[in-house]
Every structure is written in structure tokens, then in C-alpha cells.
Amino acid sequence: MWIDSHCHLDAPEFDADRDRVIAEARSAGVEAQILPAIRAANWPHLKVLCDGHPDLFPAYGLHPMFLADHRPEHLPQLRQWVERERPVAVGECGLDFFVDGLDPETQRDFLRGQLDLAAEFDLPVILHARRAVDALLVELRRYGGRLRGVVHSYSGSEEQAQQLFKLGFCLGIGGPVTYERAQRLRRLVARMPIEFLVLETDAPDQPPAWSRGTRNTPGHLPDIAEQVALLRHMDIVSLARETQTNTRNLFRLPIR
Predict the structure, then answer these.
(1) Is the peptide bond before 204 cis (omega within 30 degrees of 0)?
(2) Pick from 1, 128, 185, 229: CA 20 to 30 A from residue 66's CA?
(3) Rounded distance, CA 247 to CA 132, Å?
């Protein structure tokens, strides 16, 4: 059984067949999914979706790529949502220095506000970091070990990963690891400590190599896991057990 630690099932790409996608994921052995929000306008829809499915767990946050949609008042509103709804995590939040036009200081302001919330409510944080892992490490060190979480769709170096492990952070691994050209990521996944590995799809984005150019779905997670097991020379049952335990413990999921 698998847990998708990062899936945007509330995205409009799933509006036409969301129930079928959920059913197919369950049939494939995906027993739970964590759905991180990206902007304040999405929080109500995400809540309704997760309330209707006991195997979908929400996280509420403000994604750096949607900086134009965020307002200063969204941070106190997020605090109210976290306090009232008790999600499994804060996020998706983080830093993105790849996309042009996203002011770095404004990104940091929103990130710090969300990290403060995660520390206050003892929740993990779901982090996005593109060309920004070093800057993210600077922010995380400010909390002196009071934070836990995952850097999803990790694309940094092995040295940066080691620093994240020292801070107690996991790495989210998904579709990109299935591409042969992703040699640096593959080497990292093959050698990293298993206790910091969680699996994800990031659906509808980042499809695996065999579905390139199509919509990704959480049902692809077991096939992505097979690629990870091959890289690590592990049997698939052991990988399922280890990654499920990691994800369940990180997010304190109420599943067996």
C-alpha cells in the first residue's frame, strides 16, 4: 500500500473525472493522499474535497509561484484556517528563484509567516524549492530544529540534501526520478537514508517518463515506486513499508 505525499487532486485538470481518478488510485494501492493548497482561494474547495473522502488529507498554504494572488491578510487568515481545520501540514510554501518576476523578499515574507505557523501548531511544512535550496536552508535554520517537513520534488544537490537531513527534513521523490537524464537525482535516491524518503506524484504535474506530456495521476505512484526500488536495489514490499511509515509518521496520519 502506498501514500501519495503530494498530489493536487483539487486542480481543475481533475474536474471532469475526479471520482474516477480517486477510484483508480485506490485500486492501484494508493491508500492515502496529501493535498497541499497553493492559494487562499483554493482552501474552501480543498476542504470540501477532503471532507468527502477519508483517505484525502488537506494542507493549507500559499505557494510562491502564485505570489500575485497572495495578500498580506492571507497570512492571518491562514492561521485561522490552521487553528480551526487542523490540517496535516502547512503548505505548499517555499521559494522559487527560477520563475522570473517573483520578488525574492516578498517570497521570503510569505514563507516566514508560514514557517512560524508550522512551528506554532507543531505541524510539518510542505516546501517548494527551485534554485533556492540554500536560501531555504537559511530560513529553516532560524528555527533551531523546531520544524519538520518535506522538500517536495527535490532537485538540489546531495550536499544540500545532507543539510536537510540534519534538520530532520524528508525529500519528496516522484516522476522526475523515472527519467534517465536525471542522473544526479537518481544517484541521490539510490544512496540517501531510507528514513528521509517519501513518495509523491505532484499530479497533475510531473508525469513519469512513460507518460510524458500527459496528465499525471496518483495512480502512477506504484509504478514510480518500482523505479525507486530498482535504483535502491530494494524489494518493492520493503520500499512500500518504509515509505509508508515515513509518510504516516511525518504527517501523523490517522491510518494503520
Answers:
(1) yes
(2) 185
(3) 24
In angstroms and rounded to an integer, the radius of gyration of the C-alpha atoms of the chain is 17
Distance CA 143, CA 3 (A): 28
For 60-144, where are the alpha helices, taking DSSP H only?
74-85, 104-120, 133-141
Task: For 41, list phi and psi in degrees, rounded to 5.
Answer: -65, -20
pLDDT in tens, 137-166: 999 999 999 999 999 999 999 999 999 999
The confidence score (pLDDT) of residue 149 equals 98
Cell numbers standing for residue 150: 518535506
**What secondary structure letter does DSSP report for 172?**
E
Q: Which residue has the cell 487562499?
A: 40
Give the integer Cα–Cα distance in Å for 91 and 144.
20
Long-range contacts of 68-77 (CB under 8 A, 24+ apart): 69/39, 69/40, 69/41, 70/39, 70/40, 70/110, 71/40, 74/40, 75/110, 75/113, 75/114, 75/117, 77/40
Say how far apart CA 243 and CA 103 lie, in whole Å.
35
Residue 202, CA distances (Å) to 5, 9, 111, 122 in order: 8, 9, 20, 24
Tell me whether residue 39 is exposed, middle or buried, using C-beta atoms within 10 angstroms of its C-beta: 0 to 12, 13 to 18, 19 or more.
Answer: middle
- What is the C-alpha to C-alpha distance for residues 107 and 103, in angstroms, rounded to an integer? 6
Taking only the tens place, the pLDDT of each residue in 211-247 is 999 999 999 999 999 999 999 999 999 999 999 999 9
d(CA 69, CA 71): 7
